[in-house]
Amino acid sequence: MTDTARLARTFVETLEARDWAAWEVLMTPDVVYEMPQTRERIRGRDAYREFNVTYPGDWHLKPKVVIGDDVRAVVWFDWQVGDRESGDAQVFLEFDADGLITRVTDFWPEPYDPPARPEGIVERW
Amino acid sequence: MTDTARLARTFVETLEARDWAAWEVLMTPDVVYEMPQTRERIRGRDAYREFNVTYPGDWHLKPKVVIGDDVRAVVWFDWQVGDRESGDAQVFLEFDADGLITRVTDFWPEPYDPPARPEGIVERW
């Protein structure tokens, strides 16, 4: 049984380390990477690596929560770019029977101003 | 061992059904609900139920991906409000030793315009 949680953590850690050799062996050559918020899709490990290698900014990723079952995993991670921008994001991974990643889906939720809520129910931090 | 994936699916399905009695027995009385994007927090099952009962709009939730381990689960779901607004969202759940939800964290990623990318790497849908 594939330890998808461990592989998902390694996926994020090898990105953080820019260890592209260790990162790309985690996935199939025809892996599909999707960003539903922008409706963008990248097909294939080579294009996906190129996308990451050339991604601008001094970005850093730190896993906060990792959950995996036999065929899928998710990592909720802190991201930071330089000294100022930071936030929460999530990456969902799908695995094949050999434990290789076949699909990667990223979500980058942005802060927003909350609507008015009834008094006393909600606190802010 | 708690089947957190099943309970997480039930959590979303009882919300969709507005079956508040079936929904609230899934969690502890002092459950904490957080929305990191707005930095909002609600403490306690009663306040959390009130928040949902009074939430405006004809909202609907449909699970797409559910992943659970012994103590946590995530549901990636489609949401829709009325005929027009729709999108992807995620809810992370934490469980105690009795299989009751102690913490709920929601993410509501919004669509955004992608930055310019190198030609030929990215397709749009």
Largest sheet of chain A: 6 strands, mixed
Greatest chain-chain contact: A-B, 40 and 40 residues
- Number of helical runs of chain A? 3
Element pattern of chain A in H and E: HHEEHEEEEE
N-to-C CA distance of chain A: 41 Å
Shape of chain A: globular
Low-confidence stretches of chain A: none
Average pLDDT for all residues of chain A: 94
Using the CA coordinates, give the radius of gyration of chain A.
Answer: 16 Å
| Fraction in helix of chain A | 10-25%
Oligomer type: homodimer
Strand order of the largest sheet of chain A: 2-1-6-5-4-3
Tell me the strand percentage band of chain A: 35-45%
Number of strands of chain A: 7
Structure classification of chain A: alpha+beta
Keywords for this structure?
125 residues; six-stranded mixed sheet; alpha+beta; homodimer
